[in-house]
Amino acid sequence: MTRATSATDAAGFLAAYDEVLAARWPAGTASTQIPTPYGTTRLNSYGPEGAPPLLLLPGGGATSTVWYAQAAALGRTHRVHAVDLVGEPGRSAAGERPVRSVEDLRGWLDAVLDALGPGPVALCGHSYGGWIALHHALHAPHRVRRLVLVDPTGCFAGFRPRYLVRALPMLLRPDAARTRAFLAWETGHAALDPVWLRMREEAAGLPWARPVTGPRPSPEALRGLGVPALVLLAGQGRAQDASRVGAAVNRLLPQAETVVLPGVSHHALPLYGPVTAELNRRMEDFLDAEAAA
């Protein structure tokens, strides 16, 4: 994104971001800034100190705040850390070294994990965050105890052409109205959380770094991944075909469990009220199975 950011744009977004944290995240949430070679990274964390760490990566433009329902539920048994992606709207700050490649993303996430401690983490990502999480698990499987992918894009199948056509105006000339219209179309006019939605619309007025893209992981790499994985797919998503993605996961990931969540679209995850209980239950059961083993 190339449009210059005014002080009013930034102030409005940051105020909306802080409102989501105050209104939706559980009491006791802690916020920290982690230095990395690519700039400082904001973590919003909740859960018992010393509990197994769970790192959550958001989809593009969603910010770490989108994970509030998962923080409240999973924070009972895990130390949940939700990340603002460097180069995107949020309270992370890009440094002099830009993130321009998959290798840069891996290096950035390695630095974040270094700050959390020496042990492996449970790693979860939605959409673009799922793409980052999968690439990192392939890069450093010893650092990932369990992998949760929430309707990941660019991992197992391509986008639907109609989705790309509808997304293009929002990407080329982003503003609040286009963002609102696109999310309404993709979610089937689902009642998204109004506090978070205002923050998401404010984010449309900010410049973003061009996201890192690349080919899907090779079948050989995916078949060699030994990390247990849970893949949760949007049954009514317009971004990609859930049945096609699920078939690819079952074919390529030897230790994956695939679940299709009915009645929810790609951009309604992970915060859409009617499905958060099921989403959280699936994640809890998957993570609890590790503890039981």
Task: Provide structural commentary.
This protein is an alpha/beta fold. Helices cover 42% and strands 18% of the residues. Strands 1, 2, 3, 4, 5, 6, 7, 8 and 9 form a nine-stranded mixed beta sheet that branches. Strand 1 and strand 2 (39-46) form a beta hairpin. It is globular. The termini are far apart. Residues 1-5 have low confidence and may be disordered.
Main attributes of the structure:
alpha/beta, 10 helices
Shape: globular
Largest sheet: 9 strands, mixed
Alpha-beta classification: alpha/beta
**Fraction of helical residues:** 40-55%
Overview in brief:
The chain is α/β, with parallel strands linked by helices. The protein is 42% helix and 18% strand.
Question: What topology does this entry show?
Answer:
Elements: H1 7-24, E1 30-36, E2 39-46, E3 53-57, H2 68-74, E4 79-83, E5 93-94, H3 102-116, E6 121-126, H4 128-139, E7 144-150, H5 161-172, H6 176-187, H7 194-203, H8 219-223, E8 229-234, H9 242-252, E9 256-261, H10 273-292
Parallel strand pairs: 3-4, 3-6, 6-7, 7-8, 8-9
Antiparallel strand pairs: 1-2, 2-4, 2-5
Helix pairs in contact: 1-7, 2-10, 3-4, 5-6, 6-7
